[in-house]
Design brief:
alpha/beta; Rossmann fold; Dehydroquinate synthase-like, alpha domain; 2 domains; 6-stranded parallel β-sheet; two-stranded antiparallel sheet; 14 helices
């Protein structure tokens, strides 16, 4: 005799499904762009391509890629001089009907291409020409608005092709900024864990572990980061890809963006154009590591070894502006709880900025 008809307990179903999109092909090395046709063939990405690039990057990298792809594909180009909703809209019009979008350039170009690909549901190949931030591999993009930068969903790259010769030839300031962006993972995950303890925010231990490991490897090798050196470019690009993959695993930018990024975005809003994204976040990392009670001097020393700024003065920014950025940080993405949301006073913010200059 079965008791099924009188059972009141039902079997629980485990459901924590998440769609993780990770790069399928990653090619890093000298003359890596020559492999783009093979990558497209391997992945079966279609016969029509829109290459989005900056005017300068089109001349020294984009045209070479267009020539390579045009042997078997119909190739169009779009120049993205800056990133804005207007530029993104124009790029979307140009991209209609194409199978694949290739972003060739720095952070703004890559972010533009990612958003266009996301909005049109197209595949996207990331071809960075500088190692300036971890957006080359992530599913997020930053777009400046009148009220400040906003973080948007974007298409993660199905492939990343990074030519170390091109990247090593870029100004070292860009690579130093990329390194600072990776080091900021340290405090980003501390803030994530803090939010987990105080607010119950879910944490991905796998994403935390990968993000922390990436930052640790960069810190360990900080003295070996050399300007215009292909082996350095190879190492940094691998770290940036790893950081982007951690975000894909987490399903958010939490593994690489905490209070130090909120400070960075505030600083960029107050003095636009003065600091690169990674530079601002690096200074924010020193401050937030101090607040977390960690080894902030080790962070500062690593940034100095790399050649990244460690004080507002290094960027030509006055200390009062940095204080304002610390106080403004809690208004940036207020839904993301960090140690800078704990109630800084103007006096304590001033002391934190003074700390940056302490020997």
């Amino acid at each position: 005799m079965s008791a099924d008809g009188i059972k009141v307990l039902k079997r629980k179903t485990f459901d924590r499904s998440r769609w993780m999109q990770l790069p399928r092909d990653v090619v890093i090395g000298h003359d890596a762009v020559d492999q783009i046709p093979a990558v497209c063939s391997d992945l079966g990405l279609g016969r029509s391509v829109l290459v989005i690039s900056g005017r300068h990057t089109l001349d020294y990298a984009g045209k070479r890629i267009c020539d390579l792809l045009s042997e078997k594909s119909d190739v169009r180009t779009f120049i993205a001089e800056t990133i804005s909703m207007e530029v993104i809209g124009k790029a979307e019009i140009e991209a209609r009907g194409v199978d694949l979008i290739v972003g060739v350039g720095g952070g703004r170009v890559i972010d533009t291409a990612k958003i266009v690909a996301y909005n049109l549901d197209r595949q996207f190949i990331s071809v960075p020409t500088a190692a300036s931030h971890d957006g080359i591999a992530s599913a997020r993009a930053s777009v400046p608005m009148e009220s400040g930068s906003v973080s948007l969903d974007a298409q993660p790259p199905i492939a990343i092709v990074a030519d170390t010769g091109v990247i090593a030839g870029a100004p070292h300031r860009l690579m130093a900024a990329g390194c600072a962006d990776i080091i900021s993972n340290y405090t980003a995950i501390l803030d994530w864990e803090l939010s987990h303890r105080l607010r119950g925010e879910p944490v991905s231990e796998y994403a935390v572990a990968l993000s922390r490991m990436t930052a640790e490897l960069l810190m360990k090798n900080a003295k070996g980061i050399k300007p215009h050196h292909e082996e350095t470019a190879w190492f940094v690009i691998k770290a940036l890809v790893s950081s982007g993959v951690a975000m894909s695993i987490a399903g958010s930018s939490r593994p690489g963006s905490g209070g130090e990024h909120k400070f960075g975005h505030a600083l960029e809003r107050l003095v636009p154009g003065k600091a690169l994204h990674g530079e601002a976040c690096g200074i924010g990392t020193i401050i937030t590591m101090y607040l977390h009670g960690g080894d902030w001097k080790a962070i500062r020393n690593a940034l100095k070894d790399i050649g990244a700024p460690t004080t507002p003065a290094d960027l030509g920014i006055d200390d009062d502006t940095a204080v304002e950025a610390l106080l403004m940080a809690k208004t940036i993405r207020p839904e993301r709880f960090t140690i800078l949301d704990m109630g800084l006073t103007r006096e304590s913010a001033g002391d934190l900025v003074k700390m940056l200059y302490r020997e």
